[in-house]
Design a protein that fits this description.
By secondary structure, the protein is α+β, with helices and mostly antiparallel strands. It contains four helices and 15 strands. Mean pLDDT is about 95; it is low at about 1-15. Bound molecules: 2-amino-4-trifluoromethylsulfanyl-butyric acid and cobalt (II) ion (2 copies).
Length: about 270
């Protein structure tokens, strides 16, 4: 491990870790594994299947690959993935609920490979979904991609949030404020927070070597959420539909590298029928 590989902090930058080429190599492998699990799930999401079953698929995939599902036992979370259905914003717990035609499901996978975290989520339509749900999914994916396009050294976290917020709101959707993207690497949730709303040129200045997620949660209705009594499941207060996509990125000299791109080109729906 080189000196650069060790945690380097800068007083002016709020103690955000700057990573070198070996970390990028580790994140590339972890990100690819996570994306491969999300690819595998496209074949399994259909009416009649339970979210618990999807959890088992990812757990077994992780075991086969010698990887660890980061959510399992994380702060008491009971499962290997998060499954967030319809008006669930995030952190839904897999269970016996059967998927039905017209549902929209977010599956969030974080795998630890060789110590590095790959964190990514995608939306999965179940059968045929209402046009409004399809539109929300498209708006949310485009919001994530606009956030990613704003990442470059010298830019700020506020540039990312502003790009996401401007697009989502221009499409008459709202941005959830209660959850944000996060730094990651050898730890799951680290500085900086990546807000999905904000003002250009505000927040933390981005530098080559920073690693973080961007994971906008976008609602068809109002942005407000509440947490259910299980202590995890976040839902929209107005019960409007919510969608999310997440990628893990690393800042490079020219912009960023996205570690969790789908090896099969299944980054967003529609996915080829199983
Ligand atoms: N993967 C989620 C994220 O994007 C975090 C899940 S933590 C859990 O940050 F405990 F809810 F699983
Ligand atoms: Co995340
Ligand atoms: Co995640």
């Amino acid at each position: 491990m080189s000196y650069l590989e060790l945690t380097r902090t800068r007083a002016g930058d709020n103690q955000i870790k700057i990573h070198g080429p070996e970390a990028f190599e580790g994140m590339r492998r972890a990100g690819r594994l996570t994306a491969t699990a999300l690819d595998l799930l496209t074949e399994h999401v259909r009416p009649g299947i339970t979210t618990e079953h999807l959890d088992e698929i990812v757990f077994e995939f992780a075991m086969d690959q010698g990887a660890v599902p980061a959510p399992l036992n994380y702060r008491g979370f009971p499962k290997s993935i998060c499954t967030s259905l319809n008006h669930v914003v995030c952190h839904g717990i897999p269970g016996p609920r059967m998927l039905k035609d017209g549902d929209i499901l977010n599956i969030d996978v974080t795998l630890i490979n060789d110590g590095w975290h790959g964190d990514s989520s995608r939306m999965y339509p179940v059968g045929t979904v209402p046009r409004a749900a399809e539109r929300l999914i498209d708006v949310t994916y485009e919001s994530l991609m606009r956030g990613i396009a704003a990442v470059k050294p010298g830019g700020t976290t506020g540039d990312i949030g502003a790009a996401i917020q401007a697009y989502a709101e221009s499409q008459r959707c709202s941005v959830v404020r209660d959850f944000c993207g996060h730094g990651l690497g050898r730890v799951f949730h680290d500085r900086p927070n990546i807000l999905h709303y904000g003002e250009p040129n505000e927040g933390i200045r981005l530098e080559t070597g920073m690693l973080f997620t961007i994971e906008p949660m976008i609602n068809l209705g109002k942005p407000h959420v509440k947490i259910l009594s299980d202590g995890w499941t976040a839902v929209t207060r107005d019960r409007s539909l919510s969608a999310q996509f997440e990628h893990t990125v690393g800042v490079t000299d020219t912009g960023c590298e996205v570690f969790t791109v789908s090896p099969k080109g299944l980054n967003h729906p529609p996915y080829p029928a199983a």
